[in-house]
Design a protein that fits this description.
With 562 residues, this protein is α/β, with parallel strands linked by helices. Helix content is 32%, strand content 22%.
Length: 562
């Protein structure tokens, strides 16, 4: 008889675990609540990237593998969902969106895609006809770069068309607005009103305000707009979440919210009405930060529906409104270097406080100077409070000086980028930057080669909610009409595997969630999406035709296509 020999290399804990596993294998397994099969299931789990079936119990995956293996876990009450001609991927996460902004946009005048200032005015005037005089009218999504005349508009034409309502129209990037005369009067903005720090009031030749306000100057108008009631905020957030679910999103990194909005999100989560895993960034407000620092980081609240452990800061503005801070001036406005909307000292001070209280910092930076300022601030903060796993982020990281690209990996900073911004901006980016700076623009491959991950997003409502638009942009660097053929600076493309990781496991990592979500791995949440075609194999021209058939969070359908 052979003797059983215990290797000295095997620790006692491993032996106990081995014996426990063997004993468990001899016990009857608890049946699964649900079994899901499909033609292909992409798990984004490197140990088993492609499976046929999932078994789910108590909202988590307990098995991922063959259909026969999953059926072995079926019981008398197990629900079986079979999608023989469909594809399943992990639930998608938008790593940078604005839930309240989306909710407000769904109620505002939609100006996305307008091809002229006249079209903008027509849409606003149509809303005014059915709105009581004196009531504020808000709109979102105009972009002068899409018009024949790409200069900023002025308010006079809008003021003549809509004289009886104060009107405020947010530019597509959220970094500039247009106000009519009624709104200027309500806000008491005049020729003598000075530019605030980090903002600019665009003036007419006679010195009067043109109606366009850039970055921090927007607050001069928004302070006059009536605040939303709590109930209206609740309705807006519920509508935004439903819109996200429709496009296959099970999670959103909500990039900068006020305490009052976070309170409403928490109320919805408590009531079981937040059908989303919301990773919320606290807006840059000293009172709010003091409150949350005292409370401490909060993770996976209400059965994994709410996280409050990160802070959103702002370094500069946006490229489209020439507010992005550049090291050299704008090629199409040589006297303009953009705007720093926060001082470097402020960014560093908040980063130090965050590290001391266990919070992550995520800072908006678009221009090369804006990005350098943020990296410098993070580096200084980390020298004061050395932290091994801080996962600080730069939101957008659009235009980088090539010397700064390696610094992300060196500092452990995550570039949280939005691939769809590249295909929106490529038509005019060279006019703003000139040819030389484009080599550090939307530089996904250059960053990936340093060893970082790139969580992807849309920045909705700046862009549409559909995450497959960013997936398509990432792998093609072409617009929705497949232009330019072969892609804009194609050397920076992602692979499809990287693009899928960018909206699943990489956002999970960027939010300290990789142990519980981001892949279809046993033990993680059963969050998945059913698609009508295989985005990993279809021609790139067919990716955007993909339909989301169902979205599941914790094994529960939160959206099903009729």
């Amino acid at each position: 008889m052979k003797k059983f020999v215990l290797s000295r290399a095997l620790p006692a804990s491993a032996l106990v675990a081995s014996l426990a596993a063997a004993a468990a294998a001899q016990q009857p397994r608890q049946p699964a609540d649900m079994i899901v099969t499909a033609r292909r299931i992409y798990t984004v789990d490197q140990t088993r990237p492609l499976v046929q079936a999932l078994a789910i119990r108590d909202g988590r995956i307990v098995f991922a593998g063959s259909a026969a293996g999953a059926r072995a876990l079926a019981g008398s009450s197990t629900r079986v969902l079979d999608f023989p001609d469909r594809i399943i991927i992990p639930g998608m996460v938008d790593a940078h969106g604005h839930l309240m902004g989306l909710g407000e946009a769904l109620e505002s005048v939609d100006l996305v895609g307008t091809k002229s200032y006249d079209e903008v005015i027509e849409r606003v005037a149509a809303r005014a006809k059915n709105t009581p005089a004196g009531t504020w009218i808000e709109g979102t999504g105009w972009d002068q770069n899409d018009w024949g005349d790409t200069r900023f508009p002025t308010h006079e034409k809008l003021s003549r068309a809509v004289p009886d309502h104060p009107v405020v129209l947010s530019r597509v990037d959220g970094h500039a607005l247009l106000a009519n005369a009624k709104a200027l009067a309500a806000a008491r903005v005049t020729k003598s009103t000075p530019d605030p720090k980090g903002g600019r009031i665009i003036k007419l030749a006679n010195g009067e305000p043109s109606g366009v306000f850039v970055d921090n100057a927007q607050s001069l108008i928004y302070r006059a707009v009536p605040a939303m009631t709590r109930e209206k905020k609740k309705e807006a957030l519920v509508a935004a979440v439903a819109e996200a679910n429709k496009w296959g999103l099970i999670g959103v990194h909500d990039a900068g919210e006020s305490r009052s909005t976070i309170d409403v999100l928490e109320e919805l989560a408590k009531e079981g009405k937040l059908n989303l895993r919301a990773y919320v960034m606290i807006g840059d407000d000293s009172a709010a930060l003091a409150h949350y620092f005292q409370r401490g980081p909060q993770s996976a609240l209400y059965d994994g529906h709410l996280w409050i452990r990160s802070i959103k800061l702002y370094a500069d503005g946006a490229l489209g409104s020439r507010g992005a801070a550049l090291l050299d001036p704008y090629s199409d406005e040589p006297e303009n270097y953009g705007l720093l909307v926060s001082s470097p000292e402020h960014l560093q001070a908040i980063a130090v406080d965050a590290l001391q209280h266990g919070f992550q910092v995520c800072t908006h930076a678009i221009g090369d100077r804006g990005n350098r300022v943020v990296l410098d601030a993070y580096e200084a903060a980390l020298k004061k409070v050395p932290t091994a796993d801080h996962r600080f982020r730069v939101e957008h990281a659009q235009i980088l000086n090539y010397a700064d690209i390696p610094r992300f990996a060196e500092l452990g900073v995550i570039p949280s980028m939005q691939a769809v911004h590249q295909t929106s901006d490529m038509y005019w980016a060279e006019q703003r930057l000139g040819g030389g700076r484009l080599y550090g623009a939307y530089a996904w491959r250059a960053l990936l080669e340093t060893g970082v991950v790139i969580p992807d997003g849309s920045d909705f409502p700046v862009e549409g909610v559909n995450p497959l638009r960013s997936f398509h942009s990432a792998v093609s660097r072409e617009d929705e009409n497949d232009w330019p053929p072969g892609g804009w600076h194609p050397e920076e493309k992602m692979t499809r595997q990287e693009a899928l990781a960018g909206m699943t496991i990489w956002p999970a990592y960027a939010a300290f969630q990789e142990d519980i979500m981001g892949s279809l791995t046993p033990g993680k949440y059963a969050d998945f999406v059913v698609l009508d075609r295989d985005i990993m194999t279809v021609p790139k021209e067919d990716i955007l035709g993909t339909q989301v058939l169902a979205t599941y969070i914790g094994g529960k359908a939160v959206y099903e296509r009729k």
